[in-house]
TrEMBL record:
GO terms for cellular component: cell outer membrane. Residues 1-21 form the signal peptide. Residues 69-79 have a biased composition (Basic and acidic residues). The keyword Signal applies. One of its GO terms (biological process) is intracellular copper ion homeostasis. InterPro entries: Cu-R_B_prcur. Keywords: Signal. This is Copper resistance protein B. One of its GO terms (molecular function) is copper ion binding. Residues 21-81 are annotated as: Disordered. The keyword Signal applies. It holds the Pfam family CopB.
């Protein structure tokens, strides 16, 4: 009986001690954050069932703590592919930058040594150097104006042409112009000159001129220039010296305006001057006559071009008085049609 009492007392002590220890562990253990689940399965692992609480005094319920969102599983194949794309993109842009730098105008592929005084001296042309000219003999004949017109007292024909033969440095020039009305020569002259270049696009010419009409024939010494002025004006300027101190000058300028590759508009102005009156030929001192023409030609071939145009001529000063004394008008306007040909 005494032994049963001792055993009962011992069991009671053991039960009370275990309950107290279990109560102490639940109250004093801190709350821990739930660990993320393994990435192999998106589903959370089933939580183990809580052990039944021992009988005793009920404890206060802790406040609910929000669980962190489970991390998304990492796909290693995707991460490796994006990394590979980034590396490839980086290499591509680096190659583009290198190619651009190599193709830039200012980029130097190989180093260029600095210029020295010896290099500059070697590149300088020799003093008194002249361009090399071709000594082959060339020639050209051109009728710039070969036209017909209707005059007050008959049909008219006018011409203006030139020809040359020679090399690049030495040429023999022939020039002529004149007018016939009703089978009668109203004016005609011929010039024979030697030409030599004095500048780019310019030749100096010198020789003689012979006037057939008007009046009695006469001769002149001539000197002048032929060339292309700025803005592509073709210019002929010649001064003449005749017997008994007579002087004269002629200036002619023309321009070719390309409307199309074959349709060309050509304005032309010619002015004649005399040093003193010459009543026998009907010319006065100063500006004697001026002619302005506008011709439109179509180049069927570069060497053959028919044209139509309008020409106005006017006399000035004593020349106009001489014409009025002969019953002629001091000015004349006519429609012309002709051909421009060269070979």
């Amino acid at each position: 009986m005494k032994t049963r009492s001792i055993t009962t007392l011992a069991v009671g002590l053991l039960l009370s001690t275990g309950a107290a220890a279990q109560h102490h562990d639940h109250s004093s253990m801190p709350m821990t954050m739930p660990m993320p689940q393994p990435a192999q399965s998106p589903k959370a692992a089933p939580q183990p069932k809580a052990a039944p609480k021992p009988a005793g005094k009920p404890k206060p319920k802790p406040k609910p703590v929000s669980k962190p969102a489970a991390e998304k599983p990492v796909d290693h194949s995707t991460m490796d592919h994006s990394q590979m794309q980034m590396d490839r993109s980086t290499m591509y842009h680096s190659q583009m930058q290198m190619d651009h730098s190599m193709s830039a105008p200012g980029a130097l592929r190989t180093p260029i040594p600095e210029l020295t005084d010896a290099d500059r001296e070697a590149a300088r042309p020799p003093a008194h150097d002249h361009p090399v000219h071709d000594n082959t003999v060339h020639s050209k004949v051109m009728f710039n104006r070969l036209e017909a017109f209707d005059a007050d007292h008959g049909n008219g024909l006018a011409w203006e042409g030139q020809a040359w033969v020679g090399t690049d440095t030495d040429k023999l020039w022939l020039r002529s112009e004149g007018e016939r009305v009703d089978d009668r020569t109203e004016a005609a002259d011929l010039e024979v000159m030697y030409g030599r270049p004095i500048a780019r696009w310019w030749d100096v010419v010198g020789g003689v001129r012979h006037d057939f009409k008007p009046g009695a024939s006469q001769d002149w010494a001539a000197i002048g220039v032929v060339g292309i002025a700025p803005y592509k004006f073709e210019v002929e300027a010649t001064a003449y010296l005749g017997a008994s101190g007579r002087t004269a000058a002629r200036i002619e300028a023309e321009y070719e305006l390309l409307l199309t590759n074959r349709l060309i508009l050509q304005p032309l102005v010619e002015a004649n001057f005399n040093g003193k009156d010459d009543e026998r030929r009907g010319v006065g001192s100063g500006l004697s006559t001026m002619e302005a023409g506008l011709r439109l030609r179509y180049e069927v071939h570069r060497k053959f071009a028919p044209y139509i145009g309008v020409v106005h001529e006017r006399a000035f000063g004593d020349t106009a008085d001489f014409r009025r004394a002969l019953g002629e008008d001091k000015s004349d306007t006519r429609i012309v049609a002709g051909v421009r040909v060269w070979f």
